[in-house]
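If your schedule permits, I should be very grateful for your opinion on a structural question. Please examine both parts with care and let me know of anything in them that strikes you as inconsistent. The record follows directly beneath this note:
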Amino acid sequence: MDVFRTDRIRNVVLLGHGGAGKTSLVEAMAYLSGITNRLGKVTDGNTVSDYDKEEIKRKFSITTSVVPIEWGKVKINVLDTPGYFDFVGEVEEAVAAADAAIIVVSGKDGIQVGTQKAWELCEKYNLPRMFFVTEMDIDDVSYRKVVEELTELYGKKIAPLHMPIREEGKFVGYVNIVKQAGRRYIERGQKKECPVPEYLQEYLEQYHETLMESVAEISEEFMDRYFAGEAFSVAEVSAALKMNISDGSIVPVCMGSTINIQGVANLLDDICGYFPSPDQKTCAGMNMKTNEIYQANYDFTKAKSAYVFKTIVDPFLGKYSLIKVCSGVIKGDDTLYNTGKETEEKLNKLYVLEGSKPIEVSELHAGDIGAIAKLNTVTTGDTLSTKNTPLLFGKTEFSVPYTYKRYKTVNKGDDDKVSQALSKMMQEDVTLKVVNDAQNRQTLLYGIGEQHLDIVVSKLKERYKVDVVLSEPKVPFKETIRKKSDVEYKYKKQSGGHGQYGHVKMTFEPSGDLDTPYVFEQVVVGGAVPKNYFPAVEKGVQESVVKGPLAAYPVVGVKAVLYDGSYHPVDSSEMAFKTAAVQAFKKGFMEASPVLLEPIVSMKVSVPDKYTGDVMGDLNKRRGRVLGMNPDADRKGNTVIEADVPMLSIYGYSTDLRSMTGGSGNFSYEFARYEQAPSDIQEKEIAARASAEENE
């Protein structure tokens, strides 16, 4: 592949709802540009960008892939992202590397939740964007309806560049609104001039007028010309569009059919003509040597630097670090400095990835996207630069995984293999997390949603040949007491020769501190229990609080006081006093009104206003306490519901929330405190733990 200068590069991310046609659009682009000689299909599992076995099996995108399209003298790095919400981490990686976005909309399904989420992402990252309406080959698809829906949502920014020409219901051509001219499709996306049909004249005038109003707003001179009734030239309109699209004040709408490769060439032309090259964007990091802001700005004349926006770890492909060059020109024989980890990395070779196919290149200019193989210390979010100019760029903000399940290895001997496989997968997937919950003897797998976790299990089996099963996790209950108890226990054992003797009198009461397992005090007078046995008694308490007598959960908030006892000059030992303390704890704890404490989380749920009633009703069913409602500052038309909810009740919440809100709701939570569990919950939990203990 040729080397491209910064001004001849476009980095474009494809966004949109699952099934809208993003991968099919990439396939049509690849075919038109000559990368492939046949048009692959998602259903056939032979597309350039969906190459993973899981993607082929499930027939939808799971990971972001990069396909560099050469169009004219421009290289378009197309980032194809998954549309399903469980893979939002992949989308966030791609958006961080992009300079502009195409939001793909299904002509058949119209505006969906994924369409709006794509817009929100573009707003967050300040990305210029276009809409591309697919499936225009379907007879009853209404492009006009999609444009109206978009205008209703996003106002005057929406500017259609084309209108479809239909004959007998078939999509046969389009009207170019800028040029006010008709075009008829011939084979392989080619076109020829044709008259504008009479039935489109009214809409042509309307859409053209909208465009002209936007053009007029560029300057006072243009505004004066507009009001004077003077027409703008096509060149002037195109220049104005480029400016307005780059700053986001205009969002064009294009359309086509990926199956028939119609409208795709127009889209590629528009990407090259209207979207900015990387050097028109800002990019700043921190120079760690001088502690000053460093304006990299995709300037090829500055010191070499790159940001690692994604990692691929594949048993067959190997490890690739996907980079976006932030400044300078990076070459295959360079040695770069990993600023965050303070290590040097010899590159050996540079690649661009065409889906799963690595193509070696000699160099990458600022703004370009490429890949480096086998970098030992490099992970997603790292900055590569030179030792003389050590830079650090801000890391991408990723969605936090809140859905979790317990996992167990099917074959006991595979524990290490599973651990290593998950470690590799976490390098690749930033929204996957493993947490070892030692207190409850379980290992937890965190992801964005249940589908995400199911695919992780499937990948473990397919890629790494290990089986794990997922199940509902144990909730980390805790045990405490509400009253004071006074107990004694005498441990006495005689068995020929040396015996065992330990005698303690102890009180147990609430300490008032639920963050601390226990407080131990001794008030023994007169040497009833010698001082050298005090640590053994405390050791007994210490061991007892690990697994409480009520339901084998950790104990908190207990004050244990040793006030009396007795000893035997020969038979007493540390072991005997520790055993006596353990037994006294069990007895004293159960006599002091023991209770189970359940964890409570503070939850924030952001939902469109129309769903607030349903969501609040559901939170009440989950024993949640709604604390307040506020407008969502980041998402217009959304309300943030704040509530305290028992952790026991939030298992499976991500699936239920999506079902209630059509996928438009999202939530976050953090641990708040422990509270006494209701009696029915306690009874159920104690019975369950008793049964589990019997079976162990």
Summary: The longest strand covers residues 594-608. The domain at 597-681 is CATH 3.30.70.240 (Alpha-Beta Plaits).
